[in-house]
Amino acid sequence: FIAHSVQLFGQGMPPNYSIIQNEKPSLPNKPKNKVKKNISDQLNSNSTQNWQPYQLWENGSAKLEPIYINDSTVVTAGDYSASLINLRTKKLIHNFTSLTWPIYSVDVSQDKKRVLTCSRYIINIYDLESGELRNIFVVSENDTDFTFAKFSPDGHNIVVSIMIGEIIVYNSFSKQEVNRKKLHNDVINWVTYNYDGTKIASAGRDNSVIIYDANSLNFITSLSSFSAPVTAVCFNKQGNLIAAGGVEGKVLIYNIENFSTFPPIPIANDYVNSINFNDADDILVVAGFGGPVN
């Protein structure tokens, strides 16, 4: 991608956010099919002025957040398929079977052995190394469409959201339903575990973020500071903060230990498409739909 501007928000105490603004680079010419620079050279560059567009493949575009397996391979998804790509050679390693319906979410187990794709009626789990299909979850007749799915940190379970505002936990191997709960009043847009697997957060079209106990799915708290649908949510690594963004084009950060809220961070004129903390918990990366990466 080409970001016209990048803002990195440091985790300072509110309201004094530390903002690092890179100079706006001039737009490069349309990239050729041949890569101009090795990507490691680009990553070692001191200035974004020297970066060149890095095209993974000639046809199609990634629609979902890429998941890095190591420094040379990445899992990414387009409209109807997910792929394992070698970043350095631009070679397709595996294509995880084109689907009849668009992919809503993709995830990789923490041990980097399995890939999950969630589409409207089917969730597929593949072996990452061989590309073979290992498990299929089909939406039941009593449920509506799947909307999002994530592995638990230990990979034993997956948490799935469905159209009517319920979340369901399945055993990722046996496919047995472990638990389910309905707390949202509308469609759930995003669902995720915290990093020790003890909590689940869901973001909904009902303008709320709900926190659950991961084992019992009992309600812990609801974060309702949004006045429009919430489209993405994540925990920080330490587990004391939740960041969420939505249609309003702003991000709110909550301290879930004392239930305080940081001042809103305006992000883009369009809705928040994905959001994540870095491993050090001092930078939050936010992508707007069709807008900048902040």
Write the layout of secondary structure elements.
Layout: E1 7-10, E2 19-21, H1 39-44, E3 67-68, E4 73-77, E5 82-86, E6 92-95, E7 103-108, E8 114-119, E9 122-127, E10 133-138, E11 146-151, E12 157-162, E13 166-171, E14 177-182, E15 188-193, E16 199-204, E17 209-213, E18 219-223, E19 230-235, E20 241-246, E21 250-255, E22 260-261, E23 265-266, E24 272-277, E25 283-288
Antiparallel strand pairs: 1-2, 1-25, 3-4, 4-5, 5-6, 7-8, 8-9, 9-10, 11-12, 12-13, 13-14, 15-16, 16-17, 17-18, 19-20, 20-21, 21-22, 21-23, 24-25
Short description:
By secondary structure, this protein is mainly beta.
Plain-language structure description:
With 294 residues, the protein is mostly beta strands. Helices cover 2% and strands 43% of the residues. It contains 1 helix and 25 strands. The strands form 6 sheets. Strands 19, 20, 21, 22 and 23 form a 5-stranded antiparallel beta sheet that branches.
Key words describing this protein structure:
five-stranded antiparallel sheet, mainly beta, four-stranded antiparallel sheet, disordered N terminus, globular, 294 residues
